[in-house]
Structures are given as structure tokens and as C-alpha cells.
């Protein structure tokens, strides 16, 4: 009987040890699952990379458009200044000719 009691007691200890290890493994697995669930999956990362790449392309295109616009504006301003100078010269010539004609008519010249 003592032998049977000892065997049962040892088996109880073994089962208790197995239960403790099983509980520990379950807790570790739960912790791992929680961590994994917080990680981004490959599809989400790939989609995000695509979005970021497209935004980079959009920014580059907008930058190119702004650079061209700035260049066009500088060209337009230069042309406007040249036309303003030419217009001022024409106005000055017209006034000078008009004054000269009046002076000739009056006999001043």
C-alpha cells in the first residue's frame, strides 16, 4: 500500500508540475498573441509604402510645377519691364514730337 501511495503521490506531483508548465505556456502564448496582434501585417505595410511613394511623386510634381511657374513669372516680369520701357520711350517721343510741332507752328524753332 505504501508503494501505491508513493506512486500516486509522485503522479500527483508530476500532474501538478505539468499543470504549472501548461499555465506558463498558455500565458506566454497569450502574451505573444497580444504582441503579434499589435504588429502591422504585410498588406498594410505594402499599402502604406505605396501611399507614401505616391505622395512623394505628387510632391515632386508640385515642386516642378512651382519651379516652372516661378520661371514663367520671371520671364513675364522681364517682358513687362521691357514693354514698359518701350512704352515710356514711345510716349516720350510722341510728346517730344508734339512739342516740336507746336514750337515750329509758333515759330520758336
TrEMBL record:
It comes from the Bacteria. Residues 94-109 have a biased composition (Basic residues). Residues 1-35 have a biased composition (Polar residues). This is Gp24. It comes from Klebsiella variicola. Residues 1-42, 71-109 are annotated as: Disordered.
